[in-house]
Amino acid sequence: MKSLRNIVGGDSTPAKLGKKLADYNALCKLVRGNLPPPLDQQLKATVLQAGVLSLFVSSPVWASRLRYAAPQLLEQLQQHGLGVERIRTRILLDTTTKPASLKHKTLSLSKHNGEILRQTAASIGDPKLSEALLKLSRHGDGE
């Protein structure tokens, strides 16, 4: 039976995965070190593939802020000799929290606005439009 050290330290798949994970962590640490606070704390993950560095953050707001910092970051990373040609931002959603339930609001009109719609419907010659306005006006009187 092989020891864990032999499995992780050899040429096995777990060893390759361990090396890859260490590389990803080192890249993420390097990128964080070149980002200004608080942006550095918002970076969740990095992936470098074919010269494109993908930076993952938790929200569209942080992705937008990261895009503004990207040109300077690209310059700094190129000075480190990483071979980064382009930076793109991605949003990494937190799947551990459930999204807030979306509640549909029942829309209603004031009685006054409902009456205006009824009057307008009565004065319009187009029967389809008149019918649509009457249907809409019913939201104003609680029907």
Describe this structure in words.
The chain has 143 residues and is of the alpha+beta class. It has 2 domains: 11-91, GMP Synthetase, Chain A, domain 3 (2-Layer Sandwich), CATH 3.30.300.20; 111-140, no CATH class. The chain has 6 helices and 3 strands; from the N terminus they run αααββαβαα. The protein has helices spanning 4-9, 13-33, 39-42, 60-79, 111-123, 127-137; strands at 43-49, 52-57, 86-91. The chain has a 3-stranded mixed β-sheet with strand order 1-2-3. Strand 2, helix 4 (60-79) and strand 3 form a beta-alpha-beta unit. Helix 5 runs antiparallel to helix 6. The longest helix has 21 residues, at 13-33. The model has no long low-confidence stretch (mean pLDDT 84).
Largest sheet: 3 strands, mixed
CATH C-level category of the largest domain: Alpha Beta
Structural class: alpha+beta
Bin the strand percentage. Answer: 5-15%
Reading side by side through the largest sheet, how are the strands ordered? 1-2-3
Question: Could you give the count of β-strands?
Answer: 3
> pLDDT under 50 segments (min length 5)?
none
| Gyration radius over CA | 29 Å
Cα-to-Cα separation, first versus last residue: 77 Å
Essential attributes:
143 residues, alpha+beta, GMP Synthetase, Chain A, domain 3, three-stranded mixed sheet, 6 helices, 52% helix, elongated
